[in-house]
From TrEMBL, chain A:
One of its GO terms (cellular component) is cytoplasm. The keyword Phosphoprotein applies. Residues 304-550 form the Histidine kinase domain. Signal peptide: none annotated. Residues 127-148, 260-303 are annotated as: Disordered. InterPro entries: Bact_Chemotaxis_CheA (IPR051315), CheA-like_dim (IPR004105), CheA-like_homodim_sf (IPR037006), CheA-like_P2_sf (IPR037052), CheA_P2-bd (IPR010808), CheW-like_dom_sf (IPR036061), CheW-lke_dom (IPR002545), CheY-binding_CheA (IPR035891). It comes from Ligilactobacillus ruminis. This is Chemotaxis protein CheA. Residues 552-683 form the CheW-like domain. Residues 128-142, 290-301 have a biased composition (Low complexity). Residues 260-288 have a biased composition (Basic and acidic residues). GO terms for biological process: chemotaxis. Its EC number is 2.7.13.3. It catalyses: ATP + protein L-histidine = ADP + protein N-phospho-L-histidine.
UniProtKB/TrEMBL annotation, chain B:
PANTHER family: TWO-COMPONENT RESPONSE REGULATOR, TWO-COMPONENT RESPONSE REGULATOR ARR22. It comes from the Bacteria. Keywords: Phosphoprotein. This is Chemotaxis protein CheY. Pfam families: Response_reg. One of its GO terms (biological process) is phosphorelay signal transduction system. InterPro entries: CheY-like_superfamily (IPR011006), Sig_transdc_resp-reg_receiver (IPR001789), ST_Response_Regulator (IPR052048). The modification 4-aspartylphosphate is found at residue 54. SMART domains: REC (SM00448). Residues 4-119 form the Response regulatory domain.
Amino acid sequence: MADDNSVYRDLFFEESDDNLQTLNDSILELEQEPDNIDLINSIFRVAHTLKGMSATMGYDVMTKLTHKMEDMLDLFKTGKMKVNTDHISLVFKCLDKLQELVDDLRDDKELEESQITDLWNELDRVESSAGAGEPEAESPAPVEKHDEGALSTKFEYYDDADTDVVNGAKADGMNVYAIAIRLDKDTMLKGPRVFLITEHLEKDGEIIRTEPSADLLEDGDFDTDFRMIYLTKDSVDDVKHIIESNTEIDSYIVEEFKEPAAEEEKAEEKSETEEKKAEAKPAEEKKPAAGKPAAKTQATAHKAKNQMIRVDLTRLDRFLNLVSEIVVYRNQLEDATNRESIDEIRDSLEQVSRLTSELQDLVLKIRMQQVSVVFSRFPRMVRDLSNQLNKEMKLEIIGEETELDKTVVSELSEPLIHLLRNSADHGIEDPETRKKLGKPEVGTITLAAYQEGNKVLITLSDDGKGLKPEIIKASAEKKGIDTTGMTDREIQMLVFHPGFSTAKKITNISGRGVGLDAVQAKIAELGGSIEMDSKVDVGTTFIIKLPLTLSIIQALMVQIGKESFAIPLDVVERVVMVREKDIMQTSNQEVCKFQEGLIPIIRTDKLLQVPSSSSDKKYAIIVKIGKQYYGVLVDKMIGQQEIVIKKIDPMLQKIKKYQGATILGNGSIALILDVNAICNSRQ
Amino acid sequence: MAKRILIVDDAVFMRMKLKDILEKNGYEVAGEAQNGQEAFDKYQAEKPDLVTMDITMPEVDGLQALKMIKQADANAKVVMCSAMGQQGMVMDAIKSGAVDFIVKPFDTERVIQALDKALS
């Protein structure tokens, strides 16, 4: 029966991703140091691991490609082929393809041979041109003769020299045996297998002759049968015992050695010899172990994608400690409650509250992931970009160990890729231009992450040409955006305007369509903000501010009618009291005065269909969304509170008014207003 | 009493796979190590009945670890885990005292047969 590998799937994917990432990084390094043999060895090792893993899972197509790639790496390793840029690019292609295969497998897609044909052929071409093109290739389909029929000790060649040795040994009182061994049909690494058997035998005697020759045996260049003449003092049973201590032997014969001349008489003695089927299991039964993957059957069980996270064991240990402490105080509480001792209850409660806040911190930390998870793929990207764009640039990464909530980290790559492409494409100038400007020819893009309070800042800066206000202005006007009276900085900020693209030529790098507005939207979705600072001919810097975590936030608790709601505190600018008479009606909306201007008022009671209190006195929660202020009207203020965000039903999410819900101290539920969505729907 | 095995492999995935095979067939996993050095240290601490040793591992590879273990305990039983294409390494391992070797992808029967024989 084939082993059910489905339980290992998640682990397989996670480790494959890791291994592919490692390979990407190492290959990138290899391009810089093509002669670093340690590096080549470590690359080879990782590729090898990948091959072993995919073979174990029974993913044949992936195994085939990893195997072929390994062949190529082996040429580097043995020095038969020099590492050059083309080779590096080819290996990268393999890695991309492998990633694609892994992703397909993750989605329960059956892999097709055709997915790798082109790449495989390309590898084959490169490998054979390196002169190492042993047609060993994918299916080692041996066209050679098959050992079929009965196993025999009959030697094909025999010469007199052997006779002398045999006779000499006999004279010394040694036994001379003819041994024939048939290996299991699908034995792998036959060379070492035979070597192991002969090693065992030679501890107790001497092998004077083998058929096929020792060289062929060592190379595994034979089918399943081999014969030898063995000199020893041991009895037949002893020899059998030695042979049986080996694995993967299908059957064997041990008999008194007879010179070929006497061979014919051997037949009737056959009863003496023994042909033993080693723990005979029909070979067919063993075969399917690595055969077809159980993919089909897994498909049903694995529809839902499980997100996995790796956790530092010490954190989990602390977690366990805290929980057991809580259990202790719970018991104390029960005990104290039984005795109705208020003081003791209070003491225990204090401990419980300390422990729960520690637990809360810890769980948040467990959910944290280093930004390196995302950053690590960028060096490769910048390398490719620099080749495609014929510009020289390098990427510097700072603070990749900075941690963020896993959900944020996994959403981060898309916007960052976009910004990076922008920098590479529009920011960094070509080498000649840079030279003229007195800049180093190699452009630098710096990606940095660091924590500041309960926010994480990610900055991406380039030392490129910066945003030229004149160009942006011209481009904006062409698109019908009014720029009159705008400062240079305001004009630069237009790049965040929906549908804006400054590239004079549309390239396939930063393309058209999705602009920086999409980046801004994504960051806002993650509860963060993005700022930009750009100086002409000096460079552009984007600063992304993100909350450390999405699951616990500071919120302003308010009441509308009789219902409690939470408003995330980070969008709240301030709270002002308003009366009905302060609210004015303009042509299309209600507004009220705030600072020097008028801001739109949002009546939550109408929007959320909650009956509001009849009181004239209301509170306007002033929120800032983008650059626009809004006043969200509520009846009562409850106060500031730390809340845990619970997911709500997708149906409720669809109405785009609530981010989630939270459970209050008294056990009731409050919905969390999605202020972003509410205000934007106003526009 | 169940025989105690130390599993050495740099891939968690492989270790899990092997652990599963062993535990389903009445072996006890005495420990796991992810490189040769760790293997040596765990061998000293756990004194397992047998070690399954991957060959390609970072830092100290399986071959070095095998030699270290054999030097410390000449009777140590080490079964090498190899993949196709590692003939030379396996030969070296056998010369250095490995009792047997198993080839990835692992076939449950073969693994168990190798271990049973090595421990008999």
